[in-house]
Amino acid sequence: MVKLIWEDKNNITSNIEKLKKKYLNNFKKIEILSKSSETPAKKENYSNKWKNKLFWGENLEVLYYLLNDFEEKIDLIYIDPPFFSGSNYNIQVKEADKDYETVAYFDKWEKDFDSYLQMLYERIVLFHKLLTNTGLLFIHLDWHASHYIKLILDEVFGQENFINNIIWYYYNKYSAGKKNLPRAHDDILVYSKTFDYTFNELRMPRKKPMKQLKREMVNGVLKNVKGEDGHVVYRIVKDKKIDDVWKIPCMQPASKEWTGFPTQKHHELLERIIKLGSNEGDLIADFFCGSGTTLLAAEKLKRKWIGCDISEYAIYLTRKRILNFRKNNKKSAEYNFPFELYTKLGGRRQDIIESGFFDKELIIERKK
Ligand SMILES: C[S@@+](CC[C@H](N)C(=O)[O-])C[C@H]1O[C@@H](n2cnc3c(N)ncnc32)[C@H](O)[C@@H]1O
């Protein structure tokens, strides 16, 4: 089997048990939002005591922490990590008496590709442990690193469990290139843990209805259906199966879903992923959640969720988006499980919490 090697490649497997224990008491619940609804749960093991979870912290620590209770319990993991783009992503933040520029998240690795690969490798090993046997992993990347990460995924998940390389074609973002074609797509690599994974057929309307031969399976062979007169039969088809090239625009500031968080993904992209790879009541996780697009899509689609981000601005926006959605959609309250905010207390985080940061009225704008 082909394997990717980099300097100081470190297989963490033998340390997992030790690190699970180390991080067991790492995170503290700092808030519970919205009262518990007495909804009967779909899955016995979660019962109606389920609470969605949002972690503010380093995701590696969160993954070890979660392994204590969630090994083989997560149905779908989507991540949209830094892409090794070589840029940091800034925001302008306005609050009552302050207006400042700050970094929303970092993606400069001082050309150190090895540490980037090691960063994702460790997390991918832990995702594999957290997924249920019917679960799926979606990793969102682009040309900078996707071909390398594909090899790591083959190593951890098995080449035979590679399902798709979804191309997200964002036709509305102009990317100039004199010596290369303008880059207009991202890659979303999809892996399962076993052959028995959740996969729902998704269909989309055709531009024009199409006349198609009617066919049926006879003894395992697809045959044209014939009418009583012996002629083939046609049908009009108005939709088609979604393939692996998804034409969905980039988020634009004019959208009502726009949060101002850099590289916020389109809600349609996440809704499609969640519908494709999970069912109502399933547990969805995003450990690089940014402005919370995945978690909001999970909430809308009646899935449970776990989210994590290291940036307080990401957590601020995620929390606010979920609460706004709940305020404006009282009808879907049936699935509004309470959600808990966790963090590792101390130092800077303590000060941020004590300043009432999460309840402030902030205006966050992406800086170009
Ligand atoms: C590309 S953004 C995600 C955007 C998100 N999909 C959205 O729609 O808004 C990547 C996120 O990963 C977070 N991140 C990067 N490294 C992390 C780490 N080690 N632990 C937790 N979060 C991390 C960043 O703070 C950033 O918010």
Ligand kinds: S-adenosylmethionine
CATH architecture of the largest domain: 3-Layer(aba) Sandwich
Q: Structural class of the helix and strand makeup?
A: alpha/beta
Taking the sheet with the most strands, its summary is: 10 strands, mixed
Write the layout of secondary structure elements.
Elements: H1 16-22, E1 28-33, E2 52-56, H2 59-70, E3 74-79, E4 89-95, E5 98-105, H3 113-130, E6 131-141, H4 146-157, E7 162-169, E8 185-192, E9 203-213, E10 215-218, E11 221-224, E12 234-241, E13 245-247, H5 267-277, E14 283-286, H6 293-300, E15 304-309, H7 312-328, E16 339-343, H8 347-354, E17 363-366
The protein binds S-adenosylmethionine.
Description:
With 368 residues, the chain is of the alpha/beta class. The protein folds into 2 domains: 13-199 and 244-366, Rossmann fold (3-Layer(aba) Sandwich); 203-241, no CATH class. 25% of the residues lie in helices and 29% in strands. The chain contains 8 helices and 17 strands. The strands form 4 sheets. Strands 1-16-2-15-14-3-6-8-7-13 form a 10-stranded mixed sheet, with helices on both faces. Strands 5-4-17 form a 3-stranded antiparallel sheet, with no helix packed on it. Helix 1 packs across helix 2 (59-70), helix 3 (113-130) packs parallel to helix 4 (146-157) and helix 6 (293-300) packs parallel to helix 7 (312-328). Mean pLDDT is 92; it is low at 35-46. Bound molecules: S-adenosylmethionine (SAM). S-adenosylmethionine binds at residues 58-59, 80-82, 105, 261, 263-265, 288, 290-291, 293, 308-311, 314. The site of S-adenosylmethionine has 19 residues, from strand 15.
